[in-house]
Amino acid sequence: MDLTATPGYVAGFPLEMGVRELGGLRAADGRVVRHGLLYRGAVLTNLTPKQRVLIDGMGLRLVFDLRSEAEAQGNADYVPEGAEYVRIAGMYDASGEEVDFSPAGIVRLNEQLDDPSQLMPTLYAGMAHNNPALHALVERFVAGKAPLYMHCTAGKDRTGVCAAMLLSLLGVPDKTIVGEFLLTNEYRASIINNPPAKLPSWVPASDLSVWREANGVSAANLKTLFATADGSCFSREEYFAMEFGLDASALETLRNRYLT
Are 43 and 66 in contact (CB under 8 A)? Predict the structure, then answer.
């Protein structure tokens, strides 16, 4: 796939960072998401001077970091002048601890489940309700804190969920959201398709699908998030009202701000 021809492509960054904007995606009412307001990608560490200039040029008012405290320790983001920096872990495990996607953290997470294949669906489902990071991000989104850049470490799961939720708030259909979400697999194709000669301890040499699944994203996981959100509600709008306190009037105000 020629990613330079896809919606949201931002030049000047390694593809595996997945840096892209959400502008141009069409909502159900026919309007489109405004360009230059919502960006997603990987962590903003070890940027080159040219990449810092590109970040500066986005005019960011918010850098929202979804990493755990352990992941962020010693790996500070580049935060452009004038931008607010917020770090709140995007996922939590069954014990209420911040999810740490280090090799040791993945081992710990797998030990909590009888069936490790259910790890990611469980984590995705857990983001749908009472998620401190999602609530803090939505609060700033509603307040007009944009342009914003949201990220975790790789910019795929936690970031993908938050991007999906913001798009859903804007009335973008789930099918379109899933398509944007799956672009991560194209951006990270070189990593997904080329595992290292020395595999991490949690990847069995006999089953490289574990590597591919860990380094890409699955539409099924995002659909699990939406199913969990919708499970106790008659509609997505009712979920927004119950979870974030956003009624029809608040959603219309939000959409008028971010759609054109």
Answer: no
Domain span at residue 9 reads 3-258
pTM for this one? Answer: 0.93
Find the helix or strand (DSSP H, E) in which 255 lies. helix 248-258
Q: What is the CATH number of the domain that holds 100?
A: 3.90.190.10
Altogether, the residues listed in the chain come to a count of: 260
pLDDT in the model for residue 229 = 96
**Does 232 have pLDDT greater than 90?**
no
Q: How far is it, in rounded angstroms, from Cα 128 to Cα 42? A: 21
CB 134 within 8 A of CB 159: no
Give the whole-angstrom CA distance, residue 159 versus residue 157: 5
Number of domains in the chain: 1
154 Cβ contact partners less than 8 Å away, ≥ 6 residues apart: 18, 42, 43, 101, 188, 215
CA torsion angle for 256, 32, 258, 137 (degrees, to 10)?
A: 130
pLDDT-wise least confident of 30-44, 45-59, 76-90, 111-125 = 111-125
Measuring CA to CA, which residue among 223, 60, 27, 260 is closest to residue 151? 60
Whether the pLDDT of residue 255 is over 90: the answer is yes
Encode pLDDT of 84-137 as tens digits. Answer: 999 999 998 877 889 877 656 666 776 776 666 778 888 899 999 999 999 999
Task: Give, in order, the Cα–Cα distances in Å from 102 to each of 82, 90, 161, 240.
Answer: 31, 15, 19, 32
